[in-house]
Structures are given as structure tokens and as C-alpha cells.
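haha ok so turns out i had the wrong file open the whole time. this is the CORRECT one, sorry everyone. sequence first:
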Amino acid sequence: MRVVAGTYGGRTLTAPKGDHARPTSDRVKESLFAILRADVPDAAVLDLYAGSGALGLEALSRGARHVTFVDRNPRSIAAIRANLRALDVPAEAATVVKSPVMAWLNGPSPTEPTYGLVLLDPPYDTPDASAALQTLADHAALSDQVTVVAEHARNANIADVYGRLERTRTQRYGDTSLSFFSGAPSDVS
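then structure:
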């Protein structure tokens, strides 16, 4: 597992110990960030179900201003911190949160929109992607023009609309799908 391109391109990443994580393949990561290329520079990014932090680290490598990594597994948190240290990521560029994603999303929010890009990669065998998308739809921490990308199993039941988030694109790679959602301002019906 590695960072594909950018400042940290080619650098190897540490994976969480154990079998719980399913890292995003380099092929999918490369395609994802080719599609997002205009959305990443200077973005504040939210990496939910972060695992090793590979998606958020790829965003930092490609010019994101800040990434908040959220995962509940202590081994994932340890891997994210190890990867941040190994890449020498400045402390102000990353926040690591050990919390169940849904608990974090339902917790206190900043009063101003902050995240312009959300990367959502829950375990394939849970309904978490749909639940998280529904909760994200009205989350105060998202900018009005947010882009949300959900990685999920090809056969997952993902709706086209969650509140103000509307699916604009789906890419398929074998058993993996990426669903891209765009946000409209929250005061628009």
C-alpha cells in the first residue's frame, strides 16, 4: 500500500494490524483522485472510516490543506499516526479522531461549513455508507458545494439523493464502486 502521486507519491504506508481493513487499491485511488483533481488542492477533507488513512494521505499529497481522519479502531488510529509521522506531515495539516463515525457525525458541529471534500469508505458488509450519507446530508461542517465520495460494494443499496446530496457519477472497478455526490446549499429545497 502506497501513496500514488503528489508530494508523498511512491511512499509506502503502514496498514492496521489485523484483518478488519480493506485498503482501497492503487488503481481505484488513482482513478478517484484523477476525477477529483480540481476538488483537492487547498481543500479541507474529512476521511471517514479512515482505516490506514490512505485516502486522506493521498489528498494531502495532492495539495489538500487539512484532513480530519475518523475511525473507531485503535489499530487504525495507530496506523494513521504512524503514517503521518513517516511522511512527516505537519501537525496543523491533520487531525486524528478515535470515534465511531456515526457518533462523531451526530456530535457537536462547527458553526461554519468547513469540509469541501468527504471520503467515505465503510466496511462493505455494513449498511454504514447509506446511514452516513443520510447524516452527512445536513451536517453543519460541510461547505455548501461539498463533494462526497462513497466507496462501497458494487451491489450496495445506495440511493441517488440524500437530503441536499445528489449522486452525480458512479464508477465501477470489479466489486468496488465509487459514488460521487455533490451538495447544494442547505437552504435550497
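The chain has five helices and eight strands.
again sry for the mixup
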